[in-house]
Design goal:
about 250 residues, FMN (chains A, B), alpha+beta, 12 helices, flavoprotein (chains A, B), homodimer
């Protein structure tokens, strides 16, 4: 196992940072790393908003509810961004151009471009000894998330990445067994994979029991069922369409 | 610059592989690396299909048109996957559960989960001296892409990742200048960023002129305009809804 794979394997989300800010050179190398990720046809359909202003962090904290949105070394927000491309054409925009921009296909392109860039940023940060945590919780109120950052049309805020100096190092969370997510040459029917999930349910029960800080006793299946019984963030769909994404 | 950031900075897409297959241990470490990426609330809403069967590769090659889909060391297909979660609940499915699964929010979750896993796989592969290329081109016919892999409901094939032993090492492609994609504390209006794009147009012109193998003389702006004038993959939107994703 080389140093890179070791860093990848060693990942855990950090939710408790000191308030020591990242240096400018750390931020620069993390963002440059993000930029080197692959991008569909080199369209680079994403933007990153770096948040260092405590007032902006506090506003985002109100949306997310997580302390590490307020207290971290730096906060990056990843957006799907077709605004740049929309603006390039200026007044000559044709109907076909617009139809293209507003397609589900282009929403997928922007979302994947942003996520690939983010994961490069995450690994670069971890390679510098920093901790990271993804923040989907900022979509708890996607309109407010958008408004705080003053995003124009054709820009959708997807998630945050809190980065900083860890104040604690939690255990690594077990994942589903490899064969539960990895299929060969064609999709394996769920019936044949069910026992891997039962195995994982036991793993997660043991994992939670072994932790002092957490009293969760649920299996993964129980967690999933509880989570999906309650529709959440149902405003994301209409919001995204309102930004001229994912319309058809 | 550490070894990890060096690997990230050194990325270029490889489109010419030998047909030497990856070893099983290489595949295992790459997939395990993918699994260690962050996942929204640990739902792991993605699956990976590893393609080693030449017949399956050939079928996918017909869809994509790129030679490196046919000739590589291994091919990974990344899917947004809520099928596993859908199946967990079995016959007790409530309407609320279904509404949740079929939301745009959950389509975003699956797409991001898959992309973060993929970028871990890409970096792990590159750290082993292998080359990679993302394949959005498999969405050229997303229904056929789906059918070749026998994907059930609630699974959407997103892209491929061709991995292998490089037969050539192309130049690193320049990206937009950092300030064109990186904003601070709020979104910077396009007017203030325009000159970075003009700068990049010149960079890309120079880049193409310096390459022997490629006669492209277009600026990035010209490429973008040409690309978006022609709506493509407009069947992706209806296909995704047909898989019970992204419906509201």
């Amino acid at each position: 196992m080389n140093q890179i794979i070791e860093t990848i394997m060693n990942h855990r989300s950090i939710r408790n940072f000191s308030d020591k800010p990242l240096s400018n050179s750390q931020i620069k190398i993390i963002v440059e790393s993000a930029q080197r990720a692959s991008s569909s046809s080199n369209v680079m359909a994403y933007s990153i908003i770096g948040v260092s202003d405590q007032e902006v962090k506090d506003k985002l904290h109100t949306i997310s509810g997580h302390a590490h949105v307020k207290t971290n070394g730096h906060l990056l927000i990843f957006c799907a961004d077709l605004h740049r491309i929309d603006q390039l054409k200026g007044i000559e925009h044709t109907e076909a151009f617009q139809t293209n921009l507003e397609s589900t296909e282009q929403f997928i392109v922007g979302t994947i471009d942003a996520a690939l860039a983010a994961q490069n940023a995450a690994i670069a940060a971890e390679s510098l000894g920093l901790g990271i945590c993804y923040l989907g919780s900022l979509r708890n109120d996607i309109q407010a998330f958008n408004d705080v950052l003053k995003l124009p049309s054709h820009v959708v805020p997807l998630f945050g990445l809190a980065i900083g100096f860890p104040k604690e190092i939690p255990d690594i969370k077990p994942r589903l067994p490899l064969p539960a997510i990895y299929h060969e040459n064609e999709y394996i029917p769920f019936e044949k994979q069910k026992h891997f999930i039962q195995e994982y349910d036991q793993t997660m029960k043991d994992y939670y029991e072994s932790r002092n800080s957490n009293n969760k006793q649920e299996t993964w299946t129980e967690q999933i069922n509880k989570k999906y019984e309650k529709p959440t963030r149902m405003d994301v769909g209409p919001f995204v369409k309102g930004k001229n994404f994912n319309k058809h």
